[in-house]
Design brief:
It is built from 16 helices and no strands. The chain is mainly α. The protein is globular, with a radius of gyration of 20 Å.
Amino acid sequence: MSTLSQTTQSNERAYWGGIFAMTLCVFVLIASEFMPVSLLTPIARDLGVTEGLAGQGIAISGALAVLTSLSLTRIAGNMNRKTLLLGMTALMAASGLLIAFASSYLVYMVGRALIGIAIGGFWSMSAATAIRLVPQHQVSRALAIFNGGNALATVVAAPLGSYLGTTIGWRGAFLCLVPVAMIAFIWQCFSLPKMENDRAAQGTVLRLFRQPVVRVGLLACGLFFMGQFALFTYVRPFLETVTQVSASGLSLILLTIGIAGFVGTLIIAAFLNARFYQTLMAIPLLMAIIAGVLILTGHSVWIVALLLGLWGLLATAAPTGWWTWLARTLPEDAEAGGGLMVAVIQLSIALGSTAGGMVFDNVGWQSTFGMSAILLLSAVVLTFFTARKR
């Protein structure tokens, strides 16, 4: 019997302090990953690069998260997972310091690479760690708390980054994340138990690609995230140069996106339970329509604010749908599937933001938004075929 199975069956104690400490890590990770979205303009100006190049900071964090999630199983199999989680938290704090004091674009990108490693490592272990921390009948509750930290960070990261960037500068905004990461590190030191290695889970990730439904479903998921971040990464330059909103208006629109996204996470379960695959298809379809309408109405502040609010509602709720799909499709391989899902999502974010930045710099924002719509429509088609294979 594997170490993980033994832990699941024998663990009668619930380490809720560890769950909440890890949730704080989730909050800082997500805030760190997406804070550049609302700070691209000042980052680019200060470092002497284009906004497209500054946006590649999101791409490199995604790329490193992919490599980490796919290679961490071997490392985790030879190391106490508490030590590994603490190491990822320390990397997160180091990333914030490097970015805040970056003297050049290269140093900034190194800091973004470190946060990518932390993201990939943390998320690839999150489900298995929840199983170790609480009894089996409370695992779903623990995972829901993790996702709550994710949703909260999604709500506040962009508007908070925009506000802090305006008041104390983009460097100060990133520096504010460091003490929160240090608190999470100390909290985990005292709240997490020792978690021995679990060798039974090694070597299972690539095996999942043998299943056609997994291949098609993950491709659909990847296209969705590519389409989302091809557009969303460059929302601030769009709002400043096309819609021409003020600094306060920018923060308000970003806050609207965040609040709408939080509402989306609260209501998505009802739609998924009623019409699962129809909901998975409707989300990217509606987002593609929004991208197309933004091309036509980008100069109208009120219409743009309304459309971006609806975008936030849909986009923030969508990951819940895809993680639910994973649990339904791979109930016996959820841990291995989780690492694979992290890799697909982060790779898609990297590809989407990279392609979006290249098109944004060389062709124009309309083409970036059009490319986003095409990717999202492709996700609709592949989600339909995923449903047929199921």
